[in-house]
């Protein structure tokens, strides 16, 4: 018989449950995870074939692959899952429990960041095999730190998309639409054949800033002021998109 | 009814708006421990908005909500820890098995999330053999049973059920009524919304009829019939002996609602 009033559950119990469930959900979306790894590995190899190898040096190709995987997980993975769970009422069910809303979203974001770190490690191993590229321990550590910064940047973009768009279908369409210019544009930050204006825009686009940071992190001894500007640009993108994503995010589609 | 004077829920002068639309307009009622309370109303009358305010999903513009003496507006988490909720349309993460869902929600309510405890919960509602299935693989009746199990996994004093038997066949509906009555026997208080007058008359101790965001009448099902049997509009719609449905239509009108 219900008698004594129960206290609110501990934060530890709430976070353990949410993180455990979110890890399972992530692991069971194995196909999406595999795709976020497969395409970067293929491009990492293809961009080095023939004369392209001179335009795209190995460390740039690894940075590009990590950036591509990051944006895939953040925009095509996180954003779509949040939009779907909002539309189907999963969030509504979670919100009627004592779990604070920041814990519900924080757990999901933490799992995405963890996925990006794991993906970065896997691509580093692939880079060592495919590109014969090995880095110093310091460079590996710095690359991980920068990958986490990049995760923040692209998860912020994903949050902004899901904050500004309500329906799953719209988020799906817009997500795929912005994914290309936001990341792929960065590819041209290393190519001058389309003119210096496009090169500059590409260099400071979200994808360009991330690739810039990553290539810098892979050679810490050559870290330059440009790399610091990339860090600043990435932080600025993170702040702006996270602010937009939080300000306009709605837990329900009604 | 096993009331001992303890109030599971007390709502005073609740007002909920969506922009300029007033969904709930000065609603007040209370529910004693061990009482089944029905909230009846046509579509858009304010039933789900009232429930949403109690659940913490919408913030009322004024009024107070107290769950077992806890101010739900000031201490939302504490109030939600004392409340079990079954939403109108339940959705869970489609990647998780129902055992994993029970473990997740057990943890969110601070009760044991061990596999053994989850299996015991599932066994109690005859879902132990389905433990490895996903929610979408269950039948409609099984989904409702799981949703009710998850709503009560922490043995809350107050249980909110939003149209719990909608879409169920008669057997599954009767089974759910028995579960609801069993919960009352265990000292829980239940607030349910329903469109079924048969359900309200069969299981509710008291019923409030809500329309245009206001409670238009509140009493036991028999008390409502006795109170309104001579109302001209009720007499006009009655086909023979006055029923709760005649009272409901008499008080809320015959026109269709969205």
Can you give a write-up of this model?
The complex is a heterodimer of chains A (254) and B (258). With 254 residues, chain A is an all-alpha fold. Chain A has helices at 11-28, 30-46, 52-55, 58-88, 90-95, 101-130, 137-164, 168-184, 196-204, 206-218, 225-248. In chain A, α4 crosses α10, α7 (137-164) packs antiparallel against α10 and α7 (137-164) runs parallel beside α11 (225-248). The model of chain A has no long low-confidence stretch (mean pLDDT 87). By secondary structure, chain B is an alpha/beta fold. Chain B has ten helices and ten strands. Chain B has helices at residues 47-55, 76-81, 98-108, 115-124, 140-151, 170-185, 197-203, 221-228, 232-237, 244-252, and strands at residues 7-18, 21-32, 36-40, 62-67, 70-71, 83-86, 158-162, 189-194, 206-211, 214-219. A six-stranded mixed β-sheet of chain B has the order 6-7-8-3-9-10, with helices on both faces. In chain B, β4 and β5 (70-71) form a beta hairpin. In chain B, α3 (98-108) crosses α4 (115-124). The longest helix of chain B has 16 residues, at 170-185. The two termini of chain B are 35 Å apart. The relative contact order of chain B is 0.17. The mean pLDDT of chain B is 92.
């Amino acid at each position: 018989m219900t008698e004594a009033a129960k206290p609110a559950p501990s934060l530890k119990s709430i976070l353990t449950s949410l993180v455990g469930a979110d890890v399972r959900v992530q692991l069971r979306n194995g196909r999406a995870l595999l795709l976020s790894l497969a395409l970067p590995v293929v491009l990492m190899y293809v961009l080095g074939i023939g004369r392209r190898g001179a335009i795209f040096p190995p460390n740039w190709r690894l940075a590009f692959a990590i950036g591509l995987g990051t944006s895939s997980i953040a925009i095509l993975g996180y954003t779509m899952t949040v939009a779907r769970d909002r539309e189907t009422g999963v969030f509504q069910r979670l919100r009627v429990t004592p779990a604070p809303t920041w814990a519900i979203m924080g757990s999901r974001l933490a799992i995405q960041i963890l996925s990006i770190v794991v993906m970065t490690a896997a691509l580093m191993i692939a880079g060592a095999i495919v590109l014969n590229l090995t880095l110093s321990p310091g460079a590996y550590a710095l690359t991980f730190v920068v990958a986490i910064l990049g995760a923040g940047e692209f998860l912020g973009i994903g949050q902004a998309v899901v904050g500004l768009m309500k329906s799953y279908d719209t988020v799906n369409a817009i997500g795929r639409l912005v994914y290309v210019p936001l990341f792929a544009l960065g590819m041209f930050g290393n190519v001058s054949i389309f003119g210096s204006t496009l090169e500059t825009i590409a260099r400071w686009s979200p994808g360009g800033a991330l690739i810039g940071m990553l290539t810098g992190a892979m050679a810490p001894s050559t870290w330059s002021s440009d790399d610091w500007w990339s860090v600043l640009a990435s932080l600025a993108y993170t702040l702006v998109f996270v602010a937009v994503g939080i300000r306009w995010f709605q837990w329900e589609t009604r | 009814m096993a009331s001992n004077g303890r109030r599971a829920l007390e709502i005073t002068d609740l007002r909920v708006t969506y922009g300029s639309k007033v969904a709930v307009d000065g609603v007040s009622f209370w529910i004693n421990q061990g009482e089944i309370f029905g909230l009846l109303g046509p579509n858009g009358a304010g039933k789900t908005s009232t429930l949403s305010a109690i659940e913490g999903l919408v913030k009322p513009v004024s009024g107070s909500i107290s769950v077992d003496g806890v101010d739900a507006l000031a201490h939302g988490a504490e109030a939600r820890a004392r409340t079990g909720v079954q939403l109108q349309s339940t959705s869970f993460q489609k990647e998780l098995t129902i055992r994993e869902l029970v473990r997740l929600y057990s943890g969110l309510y601070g009760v044991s999330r061990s596999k053994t405890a989850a299996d015991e919960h599932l066994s109690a509602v005859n879902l132990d053999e389905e433990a490895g299935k996903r929610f979408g693989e269950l039948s409609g009746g099984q989904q409702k049973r799981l949703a009710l199990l998850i709503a009560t996994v922490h043995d809350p004093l107050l249980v909110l059920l939003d149209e719990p038997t909608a879409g169920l066949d008669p057997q599954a509906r009767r089974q759910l009524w028995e579960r609801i009555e069993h919960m009352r026997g265990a000292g829980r208080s239940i607030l349910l919304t329903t469109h079924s007058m048969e359900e309200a008359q069969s299981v509710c101790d008291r019923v409030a009829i809500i329309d245009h965001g206001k409670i238009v009448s509140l009493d036991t099902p028999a008390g409502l019939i006795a109170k309104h049997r001579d109302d001209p509009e009720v007499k006009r719609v009655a086909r023979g002996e006055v029923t709760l449905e005649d009272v409901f239509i008499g008080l809320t009108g015959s026109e269709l609602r969205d």
